[in-house]
Amino acid sequence: MNLAFTPPTRTTPIPMKSNRFALAPAAWLLGAALMTCAPSALPAPAFSLAWSEYPSWSAFGVAHVFKLIDGREGQTGPVEDKWGVDIVLKEAEYDPCLTMYGSGQCDAVCMTTLDALNPALGRPSVVIVPTSTSAGADALIVPKTITNIKQLRGRKVYGLAKSVSEYCFNRNLELLGERPEDYKYSNMDPGAAAVALQQKQREIEAIIVWNPFVLETLNKRKDVHVLFDSTTIPNEIIDSVVMAQASLDKPGGRQFACAVVDAFYQINQRLAEPATRDDTLIALGEKFSHLDLASMKKVVEQTRFYATPKAALDLFTGAELKAVTGRVVDFCVKQEIVSSAPKIGYGSQAEAGAVALRFDPAFIRAVAEKK
Amino acid sequence: MNPEGDASPAAGDIALESRGVGHGFGAKAVLFDVNLKLRRGQFLSLVGPSGCGKSTFLRAIVGTHPPRAGELRLFSAESGDEGKVIDAPGRDRGIVYQQYSLFPFLTARENVAIGPMLDQTSLAFRCLRRLRWRQLRREQWRAAGDMLEKVKLADAMNLYPHEMSGGMRQRVALAQAMIMKPEIILLDEPFGALDEATREDLQYMLLSLYEENQKAVRQGNRPPYTLIIVTHELNEAIYVGDRLVGLSQFWDWRKEGHAAAPGATVVYDKPTPVFDTKTARNFERFTAQREEIRRVVFEPAPPCDRHQHVVYWREQTAR
Amino acid sequence: MIRRPIKSSTAAFLGVLSVLLLLGGYTFLAHRQYQRNPDDTTIPRWSQLHKGLQSAIEVNRRSEDRWLVVDAVASGQRLFLGLAGGVAASLLLGLAMGCFTPIEAFLHPPLSLLAKVPPTAALAVFFVLVGTGNNMYVAMIAFGVLPTMTLTVNLAVKEFPDELLYKAYTLGASHMEVVWTIIFRQVLPRFIDAFRLSIGPAMVYLIAAEMVVGDVGFGYRIRLQSKLLNMSVVYPYLAILAAFGFGMDSLLRLLQRKLCPWYEPRR
Question: Which of A147, A363, B126, B151 meets the CB 3.0–4.6 Å disulfide criterion with A257?
């Protein structure tokens, strides 16, 4: 259980090296000499992080652009050097990111905690940092003629099935005292749904999508409005970085988690400082649907970043998280997103025990202390 | 050799007439002033150097490529004395090509029966009056079977073309043309792709058709087959036909005042000996005529006078 | 020696062996994955696949229908309508183009351009033009297979020898008879071949479109279940797709043999 705290040893790579160099004794001597004299010449352990375009996740792409980290394998930036690891960035669409993580093709992934439940059943996982929460970034968009949710009864509402969109829709219905059974939630890719509504296609009258599609649709069609959005359920849709427990347990795994968290806060710092704010926002926009500065300002409003270690620690250690996560788990079981309710834990592995998904503040703390 | 006299087709009965036919493709002149009168029941061999327009002339008769100058007239019982000017393909002319004469999706019997089917019924009839059509088809199939027996293919009724030998295919193609009882049958290099033995068999078959003609004439009937055969084989041309026409572009057109070559024309038109199926093939008998044809029709130089050897009708009237 | 013939029994043995190796390799991979992580769902074992297939066949508790049934009905309907439309239209167009030169001159340039546009890439265009209902799938499949098939039929008609055409006229055929009784019968096997070859692309277009806008159908189910890492459902679905494609192909080949016994496909 305490494997995670075993200091990474350098003994493992040596037999490998000696095997290879056994063929050339001179080289072996040289190699051995180099290794004993300069341990820093060892390649830093590499871990991969899969990310998709989203305001708080594009931060990692931006960190690469700003040369805080180097997303290529074998190359490192200052943040990676600070923690002695090699972060390998893999960019993909959101769905492939989930599949990639679930099948063990990457060590860590950017996803919502809701989507983390299912892969966590097969691959015990740790939420190492919350990056943002949806505060209006998920919205139900309807023509202005529809002003009351009851008007949508029996009509189709289009959005991605078994996703945060459906969660947001159902939660808002609950809050309004409606029964989800009275509504027809129908699957459609958010991008396609947004285009369909913008094209005023018959039948497509109500869509629930996320940014950038919300902003795009509102910009392109003036006779539609937001009927409700995720501002009613703050801190429920949590965007985060999730890492496999097995990867954490590898040598350098915890350092990798710290480096990822560190890179995220360094970008947030640039966003906080007036001198670098706009520049960073523009860079984020370039990694997020090529939105311009004005739109990006709106986007970061609707996608509230957990910009400081304090904000993140408040969330992780607060009582609200447990209640919200319980609700999310219930939703996922009811919607058959998960085959059974995953066990959720909070705190260190020692505190939480063997669970499927664990919210661990240790890495946020480690980064805050190492400043 | 039979003396032509009594058994040859009636001199006055003309099946096809070519009056000053000229043809060409774009600026390229192919045929010039082709004049020809074909008697009913006659087997005419058409020879000439390659590129002289034999196939073009045949296509003009088929009607797919009507001539640019002059006209072709076809005479039948219905057309009267003036005949009918050929301007489109029709069921009164049959054709057999070297290949692609048969429809690959039909059996031998169906290939022969398709002519009567297309001729006697329409798409609508076949769709709407199925019972009557089925009855009619049985009759047509029987007729097709008889025709195949005539060309000695009784055993191959249900074979598809790809299952038959080249010789069998050409027999079916002949049957396919003959069942229509056309005014004239055109054979375009019909045996060009066959081996020597098969070729002889088929030549022999043509001779037997000619004998039917002779028999019909002797009995005072209309001869059933009129035929033009295009071939590059001089022996075959002389052996199978009773008249040989040579088309050639190597004639003395400068003498007639042309600045450029006006195209091939008839430079040779003479009767050839008639053979029968009972006597052995003996080509030595016409060596002299073959040499004459070779010189007049095929040799580029010296250019011949185009009227000197066109003597068929002169000889006929002199007789 | 290259192309040395082998005994048919050897050939059959090798074929069976390769399939067995494939299945064995999969069993091994699944077992190893199970050893590493008993909770894994990405490389399901046979028992898991069986359960996955069951969950697709049984009446689903929440949606109260059988997934496989509703998906097969939806996807099948879209595929057949789309293929039927595309195939019928391309037969008519191909025949018309092959028989009438002005029609060919008019249609050939746009069709050869359209044949190069993958309909999956033009998905958004289909949304905009025909909406997102069933019409979209049908239109996408129909227009997806139409250009290539039309050109194939056109080519087959053009290869019809002039001699046979003249021949038909000398036998007294009318223009309509030449087209339907002669040319159509001649190009029929080539047309069936083109049909067979278009089933694959048609399935690609259908699945791609269903993945994006479907709320029922094979593409929808595969995307959703992949996201949820339920490979025990996804693999049976893929197997069913493969079996369907194979079945359609065999059926058409049989049809070709029955309708065109004279046809010898060039190998």
Answer: A363
Q: Does A326 touch chain C (CB under 8 A)?
A: no
Q: Tell me, what CATH number does C239's domain have?
A: 1.10.3720.10
Q: What is the pLDDT along chain C (267 residues), one digit of tens a residue?
A: 788 888 999 999 999 999 999 999 999 999 988 888 787 788 888 988 998 888 888 887 767 788 889 999 999 999 999 999 999 999 999 999 998 899 999 999 999 998 888 877 877 777 777 777 788 889 989 999 999 999 999 999 999 998 899 999 989 888 888 898 899 999 999 999 999 999 999 999 999 888 888 888 999 899 888 888 888 889 999 999 999 999 999 999 999 999 998 887 654
A333 and A289 both lie in a single domain: yes
* A190 and A99 within one domain: no
Residue B160: its chain C contacts at CB < 8 A? 261-262
Domain with A143, as residue range(s), is 138-232
In a domain? residue A356: yes
Q: Which residues of C touch A119 (CB under 8 A)?
A: 229
Does a structural domain hold residue C265? Answer: no
Answer yes or no: is A324 within a domain. Answer: yes
Residues A187, C215: C-beta atoms closer than 8 Å: yes
Most C-contacting residue of A93, A94, A95, A103 (CB-CB within 10 A), to test interface: A103
Q: Mind giving me the DSSP string for chain C? A: -TT----HHHHHHHHHHHHHHHHHHHHHHHHHHHHH-TT--SS--HHHHHHHHHHHHSBPTTT-SBHHHHHHHHHHHHHHHHHHHHHHHHHHHHHHHHH-HHHHHHHHHHHHHHTTS-TTTTHHHHHHHH-SSHHHHHHHHHHHHHHHHHHHHHHHHHTS-HHHHHHHHHTT--HHHIIIIIIHHHHHHHHHHHHHHHHHHHHHHHHHHHHHH-SSSHHHHHHHHHHTT-HHHHHHHHHHHHHHHHHHHHHHHHHHHHH-TT-----
Say whether the B–A interface has 3 or more Cβ pairs within 8 Å.
no
* Final residue in a domain of this structure, among A194, A213, A232: A232
Chain C 147-206, CB below 8 Å of chain A: which residues? Answer: none
Shortest distance, CA A199 to any CA of chain C (angstroms): 6
C143: burial class by Cβ within 10 Å (0-12, 13-18, 19+)? buried
Q: CB of B115 within 8 Å of any CB in chain C? A: yes
Within-domain flag for B129: no
* pLDDT at residue B124, rounded to an integer: 86
In this prediction, residues B21-36 reach a mean pLDDT of 88
| CATH of residue B290 | 3.40.50.300
* ipTM, two decimals: 0.84
In-domain check, residue B125: no
Euclidean distance between CA atoms A146 and A124, whole angstroms: 44
- Rounded to a whole number, what is the distance in Å from the CA of C35 to chain A's nearest CA? 13
Structure confidence at residue A42 (pLDDT): 65
Q: Report the domain count for chain C.
A: 2
Domain that holds residue C26: 7-40
- Are both C51 and C96 inside the same structural domain? yes
Under the banding of pLDDT at 50, 70 and 90, the label for residue A39 is: very low
Contacting partners of chain C (3+ CB pairs under 8 A): A, B
Ranges A29-33, A129-133, C99-103: which has the least confidence = A29-33
Domain total in chain A: 2
- Decide which of A232, A248, A280 is a domain's last residue: A232
| A:C CB pairs within 8 Å | 77
pTM of the model: 0.77
Q: CB of B246 within 8 A of CB of B267?
A: yes
